[in-house]
Structure formats: C-alpha cells, structure tokens
Amino acid sequence: MSTIVPATDLPAAEFTLADVTVESIEARVQSITASLDAARDTIAALAPKDRTVESTLLALHAALDAAAVDQVFATFPSMVHADADVRSASAAAKTTLKQAFDAAYADARVFAALEAVEAEVRNRNDTVLSRLYDQTMALHRANGLAIADPDQCADYTKTRGEIAHLEQKYTQTINEDTTTLDFNGDALRGCSDRYLSGLDRTGDGMYVVTTKAPDYLAVMQTCAVLATRKAMYTAYNARCKANLAVLADMVAARQKAANLAGYASHAHYRLSFNMAKSPDQLAFLDDLAVKLQPRREADMAQLQALKDADVDAPHGESVQPWDIAYYVAVLKKTRYAIDDDVIAQYFPLERVLNATLAIYATMFDLEFVAAENMPKWHADVRAYTVYRGSTKELVGHFYLDLHPRPGKYGHQCVVPLMPATLCPDGTRTLPIAANIGNMTKATPGRPALLRFSEARTFFHECGHVMHCLLTQSDHALHAWSWSVNPYPGGVEIDFLELPSQMLENWLYDAQVLAQMTSHVDTGAALPGAEQKTLAALRRVNGGYAYTRQLFMSLYDLAIHAPGFAEGDQDTIIAKLASTWADLQRSVNGTEMIDGTWPYAAWYHPPPGTMPGSYSYLYSEVASHDCFPEVMRRAGPQGSLDPAVSREYAEKILVPGATQSGDAMLRNYLGRELSDVPFLHHVLGDDE
C-alpha cells in the first residue's frame, strides 16, 4: 500500500542534491579519491604479521563502501540536474571516480597483502566471504595485475582511463540532445486531440514534437501521414552525429585494452564476468535469428497487406521502417479490436503508479509511504519511504522521476543511489533507488494516460527498484548496482534483467489488470475481453520485434569482436555503419536509410558492461523458465499468492550478488535452466 503521513513521523533519507555545485562536485571527487588512496596505503604498509582478513580485505571494502555511498552526490547530477554546468562537471566526475575505483582494485601492494590472507579466508568456511575475496582478486587481475610487463600495465591503465572518458562523453551527448521537429496540424493527422493538446506551439502555431520517447512513439504509432512518420524516424535516427567518432575511438580503445590484458577481444574480456562466460556460449543467437525468419516474414506480410489496403499509402510501396509501428497499431485495431489510445484511457498514470506499488507491497510484504519530507531535485520528483509490512522495519527509500525534460537522462533506468552496506560500526546504510523515466506527463486539463507499453515499462522498472530495496548485502560489491555507477558491483549483467522481465508476467494476469486499470472518465476496470487480448498481443509482430532485438545484440558483439577495430578512425566509422546496415538487413529484413546513424544515439554501447545487449534475451530465457514455476507452486490466489512471490524474492532478489546468477537459478528452480519455455514463446504461433 502507499500512504501519506506527516513528515515529522518519517525518517530522513539523508540524500539531497540541494547544495550541489560545480565546486562541491570537484571537492567531493578529491575527497573520495584521497580516502581510497589512503586506504590502499594503510593496507600496503601492514607488516606481514598484521595482515588479517579484517585489516586487508574488509578494510579495503570498508573504504570502497564509504566511497560508493559518497560518490552519488558527484555523479548522479549528470542525469537529472537542471544546470548544464553541473551536469557537465558531474559527467567528468564519473570518469575520474571510475578511474579511482579501478585504481583501488589495481594496487599490486594491496594485491600482495590480499594473497597473504587467502588461507584465513578459506578456513572461515564463509561462502559469502570467499566470494567477496574471489571477486576482489579477479577485479585486481582484470584491472591489469595479470599483466607482467610494467610498461604494458601502465599502457593498460591509461587506456582504461580513456575508455571511461569516452563512455561518459557518448552518454552525455545523448542526454543533452534537444532535437525537435515542427509540424502543422495536417501533418499530424491521426494523432489524438489529447496528445496534440499537450504539445508546445511555435509563434506561428506549429506543433513542436520532440524526439523523446512519449512524442516519438505517439507519432510513429498513430500519425497517418507517411511523410511525417518518415521525417520523425529520420530525425530520431540521425541524432548525435558527434558520437560517431566517439564510438569509433571507444571500440578501438576497448580492443586495445582487452589485448593488453591477454584477451582476444573486448567481447571475450567482458563476457568472462557474465553467466555467458564467452562469445562461444552465444551461438544460440545466430541460430535463433535463423529460426525466427519465417515468423518475421509472416509478420511483415501482414503489415504489407495493411499498407496495400491503405488508400493514403503509395501504391505498390513495400513496408518501410517508419511504417512498422503504425501498421502494427492498425493491425491491433482491425484484427484484435484494440486501439492503443482507447486502451490508454484505462491506464491513468496515478492509477498505474498506486496499483503497481500496492501489488508489489502485497507480493513482497512491503509498505510504501509517500515521503513529503525527502528533498527532491525537481518538482516532478516523488519520494517514498519503504517499510517491511509485517514488522514496520525500515527497508529503504526510493524516488520516481518519470517525465522528460531538457538535459535529463533520456531513457528508462533505475539508479542505485545508495548501496545496501554494513558499516564498520555495525550500523547499516539502507538502499535508496531512483526510477528515472521518460513517460507521458499530465498537462492542465489533461491527465497523463499511459500506453500499455508505458505501463509495462513502469512495472518493469519498479521491479528493479524492488530488487535494489530487497537485496541484503554487507558490501557495495554485492549490492544491487550496474555500470551507471562508477564502482563495480551487482549481479552479472546477463542476470540483471531477469527479475524484472519475470515480474512483467504479472501484468498480464486478470487480477493484476483489474487493479491496474481505471477508465479516466468512468472509473471502470479494463473489460475482461480486452484483458485477454492484451495477453494475446504479447506475441503479435514478435518475429519482427525479436529479430530487431537480435540484430542489435549481434551488432554489439560484432563491433567488440576480434579484428573489428583495426584501421584508423574513418575506417572504423565506416565499419560501424556497414555492420549495422548488414545485420539490420540480414536479421531484421529492414534497411538503414541514408543520412542516419542510429547506433550513435543508442544508450547501450557506452556502459562498461558492454557488449551486453544480448543480456536481455539471455535473461528472458530464464524469466520464461521461472514464471511457470511460480504458477505451479501458487495456491488459489494464483500469481498474487504472497507465499510464492516471497519465495521468489528470497531466492532471486534478496541474495543480490552474494551468489552467482547460476547458483540462484538452480536454487530457485531446483534444476538446471531450460530454454524450452522461451523457445515455445518466441517460435510458437501468434494465436
């Protein structure tokens, strides 16, 4: 449940960006770097007789944990702050702090001290402690200590710093993009009056359409004017041209660093930390791409028939990329009697938000309290304090920052602001998360109505919030995190999406949809027939959708494969384009149009976890295997049986990274993972 109580009755979250300035960011970076350096020096100075688990391994992580808690005030403003100078300083801070954390895991003196306590670690028979030790040593080796030659090691460290700078530069260029297009009313024919009424207007009455997700999807799915859709598609995929050179340099630097560390490629290096372990384990992606071609061809044939019947479409013209979302919407209306704009009237944002929290509260024994006392960085932001429902124990806090604005991070994600850690004095740092979205916003006289895809995304992202809040860890390395932060931590990247992907299944349950929906005018829940149709629509156009996901995953692997980064910058830029075009054509059956470079405004390449785009499919294999287990174990309450959801939480969410993803899945399933349910979902008939 979600309630509002007086601010005086709520604990403070101890998180604020109110006093953040360029100067405060720079000072905090210096302080964090100095504290990490001091911890390394202290451990290095220990006499052999004084080297213990506490004085080495745990002392190192005490410093790392404190730095992980402190760094957010320097790095998070890059994603949300109103001041461009602050965002720029914050982006630079993330690069510097990434190097500082890497250095903390790359000190030969500390590594030697840690080697000396291995026997003591093993003798304690503590599996979590042993995992912490093994991961710490692996990070030291990955950060260059496995390189014997000193000059080569120095070159490796320098190159890693260059990579961090390029990654942040690439991401910040996307965040700062403000591409818009102006259209008159005729050019937006088909778009709803409700949508148009929320757009800004120019002095001469033109509608200003941004390339942020709510506007882009609305136009691509509902605008009947082909020329407008093409213009929108072209502008969207021609953003951030400056990132072409950045991406080329990033790919080259990653390849160089991987080779210096003894790996065949950056793909081999990164995957060694994941459940997949090596590119060889991802051969199923190529196989799946072949198997999906009949489904993709059938999907495109359906859309082609709709375009052929469209009197406004050029006679005999094949379906183009800017047509697909539009004719999928037409297909839903004509074959399934589903109109996305009509369905959106059942998903007012406030209803979806409150119902999502109520459902997760029931599932995981939580209570969410709207925290008016927590400072917020923007008027759009909402804050919540979270308690254990049955015991009223304080669990943590989270923020919702759901709407687009200039300079803000332009995608959807959850940022772990505070990791769950155990402090040396025995107190705990409670987790704090921020759900950063770019969803439809209410305007005066116009409530925010979410397309079902937006409601699903919100439910999914809140699943990450639950994972962050429920993780029980003593150290930042084992807390819920990912590469949005400069410190290493969290589950394997190809496990990260599993919990939220699995939780999406709840959204297709009739009980859940009844709670989630309330017609904006009548208050009625979504009728049962439409509920069933939404479930059926999960696989509509699945051949196209999955081959699109596949070609982008294969692209990510290809540009990080051995030999790709050979040549100068111009050569690599040309290969970035030709590789995307070839894979889009061969796997997805569509063409990359001239004058566009979609990979330059794609959020996935920059994170240090890449290549990781495959991880969505890899995680989905597990999610489709887990959900049938939930339903098999559930009682009469079905998916809302709290006993089964809490078992899932205890075995999949609570451990965080104290266990490997493989171990958690075996523990939950009671067997090895099977891909049969996933293949049935992906390759089965649409009916």
Automatic annotation (TrEMBL):
One function term, GO molecular function aspect: metalloendopeptidase activity
Note accompanying the cofactor annotation: Binds 1 zinc ion.
Protein name per its UniProtKB record: Peptidase M3A/M3B catalytic domain-containing protein
Peptidase M3A/M3B catalytic domain mapped to chain residues: 219-681
PANTHER family xref list: PROTEASE M3 THIMET OLIGOPEPTIDASE-RELATED (PTHR11804), SACCHAROLYSIN (PTHR11804:SF84)
Organism taxonomic ancestry: Eukaryota, Fungi, Fungi incertae sedis, Blastocladiomycota, Blastocladiomycetes
Species, as recorded: Allomyces macrogynus (strain ATCC 38327) (Allomyces javanicus var. macrogynus)
Keyword entries, A-Z: Hydrolase, Metal-binding, Metalloprotease, Protease, Zinc
Family: Belongs to the peptidase M3 family.
UniProt cofactor(s): Zn(2+)
Gene3D superfamilies on file: Collagenase (Catalytic Domain), Endopeptidase. Chain P, domain 1, Neurolysin, domain 3
Pfam families in the cross-refs: Peptidase_M3
Cellular component, GO, one term: mitochondrial intermembrane space
Biological process, per Gene Ontology: peptide metabolic process; proteolysis
InterPro entries listed in its UniProt record: MetalloPept_cat_dom_sf, Neurolysin/TOP_dom2, Neurolysin/TOP_N, Pept_M3A_M3B, Pept_M3A_M3B_dom
